[in-house]
Amino acid sequence: MDLHRKYDFKNHHFAGEEGRLIPLLQQAQAMDGYITRDRIHEIHKNSGIPLTHIYGVATFYSQFRFKPVGKYMIRVCHGTACHVSGAKDITEACQDHLAIPSGETTADRLFTLETVACLGCCSLAPVIMINNDTFGNLSPKDVKKIINRYKKEGPKEAAQ
Amino acid sequence: MMKILVGLGTCGIAAGAEETYRKLSTHSQADGAGFQLGKTGCIGMCYREPLVEVRDDKGARFTYGAVSPDKVDRILEEHIKGGKPVDEWLVWSNDTVGSDKPYLDNQSRIVLRNCGTIDPESLEDYLAVEGYQALKRVLDNKDPEGLITQIIESGLRGRGGAGFLSGMKWRFARMAAGKRKYVICNADEGDPGAFMDRSVLESDPHSVLEGMAIAAYAIGNVSVGIIYVRAEYPKAIERLNIAIKQAEERGLLGDKIFGTDFEFHVKLKEGAGAFVCGEETALMQSVEGKRGMPKVRPPFPATKGLWDCPTNINNVETYANVPWIVLKGAGAFNSMGTENSKGSKVFAMAGKVKRGGLVEVPMGITIREIVFGICGGIKEDKKFKAVQMGGPSGGCIPAELQNTIIDYESINKTGAIMGSGGLVVMDETTCMVDVARFFLDFTQRESCGKCTFCRIGSKRMLEVLTRITEGKGRETDIDLLLDLAQRVKNTSLCGLGQTAPNPVLTTIKYFRSEYEAHISNKKCPAHSCNQLLTYSINDLCTGCLLCKRACKFDAISGEKKVKHVIDMSKCTKCGECFKVCNFHAVARD
Lengths: 160, 589
Fold this sequence. Notes:
Chain A is α+β, with helices and mostly antiparallel strands. Chain A has helices spanning 21-32, 37-47, 51-60, 80-84, 87-98, 140-153, 155-158, and strands at 72-77, 111-116, 128-130, 133-135. Chain A folds into 2 domains: 7-60; 72-158, Glutaredoxin, CATH 3.40.30.10. Chain A has a 4-stranded mixed beta sheet with strand order 2-1-3-4, with helices on one face. The longest helix of chain A has 14 residues, at 140-153.
């Protein structure tokens, strides 16, 4: 896929090469799952934005990842409400069960575990998100069950 | 015909509202179903999701809570066919029944006026509730100066936290010289514990677009508005895109709005996960494709903002107020509230409160009235300890000050700030040192690194707080924290650094004894800091072996029906035994 064809930045309101950098990086991540070295060079070649600037921006924002991720992205919410409702126990349960620390991916590339600041479902705390499905009012035991369902059945059935 | 609406905000969907909707839709398509099925946004009772509302022709409304798919049949049978509501599942109605009536009845809804009553993906629904009429009136009047005066008179202050008079901001942007100007909607709602803006965007996106268009007209020379929205809010982005498209197709946005020469296009910019981008100068840097680092003010955005053009930035809630003020008049708005804080404020209620969700209350109401009157008090009737207001920039207001009124100045006096509206309730099991540590952990990670004290000072503060919660606190630590806090506040460029110490300062101010207990006695009064707890087994032990099996570290010994013993040299204080015991036989201190 051509990263640049999708972006027609003739619109003068976002004029200047720099204004388009973040959408380009978001697009690149959507295509590859993470930001690859090749894509950064591709953006540089097509836009003329200095490599240092691209790296500077990409590393500033927490959305951009530089390592491949698992099939299922588990995001454990550590917002205020989740924190006071035991998010720490939830993260520990995930770490124990998957045998990886937060921020890492399992060897079979099935799960990546992440902690995030707030998913905005505070009244359902503690909350996790697996890909686009949200699970609330969890106990550490529930988490293990949910992860097992993903292992066995895949996302569709597990999210029910 | 009866109408059934399902609340499909993010909270509802997380609680399973889509399954309920699917189940209802299989029935609604059958002949003689007797009802019409519709979608709506956030009804606000997040603690009772999934929510389903039944409306009859006479205007009666009945809201059911926790409607899982298996409850659908009985509601259809008894209420739709039989005409008799299922009282035991009702949480609210505009009649007399409903278990949680005080929750909605004690609110005053301006911003949330359409949330949970209209379909956010239907322009017709919005038009039916006077949608875009405010914009039309403004364009008919052709008096931008008068419009700005009206907004100033209404007393509307920025709902993002700082509380600057919105109309004044508009006036500055109008007076600034420039052929091209911008309006920006700040929807980068990053405070953990806040979800007001998400709910408004998901439930009533057109009201925000209309508010922005009105601001654009008032300021003049604005043809483009930008909504900077968190990428973590996919549903809000989806619905905004739908709303923008609908409005453009109908000539309510775009070129020649309502057939006039007024042109206004709205573009979405997705954030990329940086809390500091909620700060207005950092946000504009991010829109320009740079690292989101704040700039020195002045010049303020109103004179030199995005691409160096005069720019007006307000947040979602502020814009959502605007159409209402234009239609109902400044007087209707400023008759509500206190002397310096007019209108209403939306709060996202979360934490240890019985009814958590979105509430909109008139300014001037007390914290007590919100926590107990509307939200029903503390979960499991535990003791109310404090509320945390304003997220990482705010502070903790203790239970003794629960009669503090919601008003910018009154809240500031306590050391907290109004903030964007996150209100997290804490009970006796919440450790205040840990809360301070939690927020510092957040702000030091989100610091952009530009200002030294914010970058390093917050890190040192976090280290001090961490060691206190681990029982390694030193007698001088409180003074050290206070000293660092002042320096971080005084030497930071933007709001993030200037306010980052607030959670620490307020908890030391109101809960100093808790810090001292951690440091001097190595005890956590809330029994929350693991490392400071000691576990023992008392005489209530029946010798059931449950804790022995649960202990991963072989720290518990004992035979069946014989009182067990914890070996403290092996105990890691993980608390598993405390959690599994059914006989209150594991004591922790």
